Amino acid sequence: MQNLHSVLFHAPLDRLAKGIVQFDIDQLALKALLVSYSDGRWALMFRDDMERDETALFSAIHQAIGDPSIPVEIITTGKWELTALVADTFHSGRVFLAGDAVHTLPPNSGGYGANTGIHDVHNLAWKLAAVLNGRASPGLLDTYDAERRPVALLRHDQIFVRVDYKVHLGTNAVAGEKIDDNAMEFGQIYISRGFVDVNGDLSLRRNPMSGLVSLGHICRIS
């Protein structure tokens, strides 16, 4: 997609937030993400490929935090490639992949990248344990790809119908309907051989909190 720059710095910004948080900087002269690491370190990730000298970096940091009097120590700078890719398969033979190894999802306000990777591992771990302990046949492991890859593909597409990248990419954004954030997190149910009597003809339910969720479908909250 494009190359982006970031700067890692240390600053006493406890007044802004506790713990790990993310701020979307959407100013006329500065478009960036400001992310904390809960130990005094912060990362400012620019939404452009512009080279900045140290003076410009200090200026951008102070502009992002809104206070030029805050002492800032620049730790390092980085350049990284923004990508949006999903692998053709998550599983081949005895090899199982998860997280960024099979899907590189751009940073977004929904946290899809990290969350999706954590969910991959959660899905795979209990299946591996069940097979290795003799409680399930190896066929259970085949459901990993069937269940997790569609989730990654959906989240890939949903990133580009949200304002984070729909505006950023303009006409290159993926067309589609935005699914409610709660439905994205709580309404994702799997269709796979891991369930009994599951087929592709199940109807859509409206609310994943209601207990009326059909297997294999995303629910939209109205």
UniProtKB/TrEMBL annotation:
An example Gene Ontology molecular-function term: oxidoreductase activity, acting on paired donors, with incorporation or reduction of molecular oxygen, NAD(P)H as one donor, and incorporation of one atom of oxygen
Signal peptide interval: none
Keywords (A to Z) from UniProt: FAD, Flavoprotein, Oxidoreductase
Cofactor(s) the protein requires to work: FAD
Pfam family, one: FAD_binding_3
UniProt xrefs under InterPro entries: FAD-bd, FAD/NAD-bd_sf, RIFMO-like
Matches recorded under SUPFAM superfamilies: FAD/NAD(P)-binding domain
Domain FAD-binding per the UniProt entry, residue ranges: 50-152
Protein name: FAD-binding domain-containing protein
